[in-house]
What we know:
Layout: H1 23-55, E1 56-60, E2 75-79, H2 82-85, E3 93-97, E4 105-112, E5 117-121, E6 124-127, E7 130-131, E8 145-148, E9 153-157, H3 167-170, E10 173-174, E11 178-187, E12 193-194
Antiparallel strand pairs: 1-2, 2-11, 3-4, 3-11, 4-9, 5-6, 5-8, 6-7, 9-10, 11-12
Amino acid sequence: xxxxxxxxxxMAAPPTLISTETAPIERAQRPEFLARExxxxxxxxLFIFWMVNTVTGxxxxxxxxxxxxxxxxxxxxINKLSYYxxxxxxxxxxxxxxxxxxxxxxxxxxxxxPGDHIEIGDGQVKVNGVTLNEPYIKAPPNYSGSWIVPAxxxxxxGDNRNNSHDSHSWSFLPRRDVLGKGWLIYWGPSDxxxxxxxxxxxx
Length: 203
């Protein structure tokens, strides 16, 4: 007697029912969600823009007073917070408001700090009797003078000593007129790099 063989096909599962009751609500919320995302993105963008402009500043080099270190037409970012965290140092390149006309911004190098005795003569700059080593200048200064930097002021010079409108001609820079420390040369493309400060270690 032959055994009867067969296979049993399982019953198909009943179709899953999907409720459509929430679809109208989702469709109604979608434009509101999109609008909220756009508003949040705009607010975040404005906040980032405000933060960047608070911390940094953009400055275009005009003139030749900082050659050969910086050149006309270059664009520089400055750090506005640097001197809230630390004091300016000799050799720092800074952007400043011109004390005699605060609508004009200059870029110079700090040479003298409050209390320093500055002497210029015979093509040399001396601070407190110490001759500065200045590999960054275009040529030695052809002028002479002697200054004592008062409290809360700085003595600043351009690297192009003989073609610079600076402290040797208009006197000292008040601390309040320092806008920020040079940070980054971002234009032109071939000039990209950090602004070259120089540390003068004088006791």
